[in-house]
Recover the amino acids of this structure.
């Protein structure tokens, strides 16, 4: 009986496996490949830039400041509240240089405002990164694409420097410029009959 069906029966059972070619899968694969390549080339890249694996003492600084972040994780220490005089001297003795900040915008947000401050900082940059990714898609305006590249470069900068949160300078101004990118259009599903007014107004 199994043979009686012939090729038609076999075709109905054995189906070819299709490999997904969606843009999101391709982007995820590209991001993974780029991460692995960066990790492999990191020591040589840092040496070429005059850095070492501690990023010129940054990782040592972050490890020294982490206990202060965990000491007040919900409300933080306020603007420069973590820099007591004795702690500054301890850091200088540990590092061998005077650390004027955390050298990380993300750690600064956590120390200044605790978990809420870090969440707000992350929301700002995730929104900016989403807009930058949309601006870099093919066919978009060249000026928006250039600003999108600036956003991604500035996001990388925020990992290793804290200028954006410490003072109003060029980096803070560039951060504001990055946030001026228009948000990508959202596709909304058709509203059901009898939807509440706030849904029809697009609030939620």
């Amino acid at each position: 009986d199994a043979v009686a069906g012939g090729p038609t029966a076999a075709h109905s059972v054995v189906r070819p496996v299709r490999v997904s070619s969606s843009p999101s899968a391709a982007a995820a694969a590209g991001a993974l490949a780029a991460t692995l390549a960066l990790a492999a080339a990191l020591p040589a890249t840092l040496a070429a830039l005059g850095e070492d694996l501690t990023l010129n003492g940054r990782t040592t600084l972050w490890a020294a400041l982490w206990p202060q972040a965990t000491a007040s994780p919900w409300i933080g220490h306020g603007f420069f509240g973590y820099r007591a005089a004795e702690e500054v001297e301890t850091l200088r003795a540990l590092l061998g240089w005077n650390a004027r900040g955390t050298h990380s915008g993300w750690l600064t947000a956590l120390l200044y405002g605790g978990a809420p401050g870090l969440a707000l900082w992350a929301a700002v940059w995730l929104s900016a990164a989403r807009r930058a990714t949309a601006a870099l898609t093919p066919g978009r305006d060249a000026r928006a694409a250039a600003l999108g590249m600036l956003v991604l470069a500035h996001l990388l900068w925020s990992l290793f420097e804290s200028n954006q949160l410490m003072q109003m300078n060029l980096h803070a101004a560039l951060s504001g410029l990055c946030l001026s990118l228009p948000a990508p259009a959202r596709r909304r599903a058709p509203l059901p009959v009898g939807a509440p007014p706030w849904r029809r107004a697009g609030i939620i």
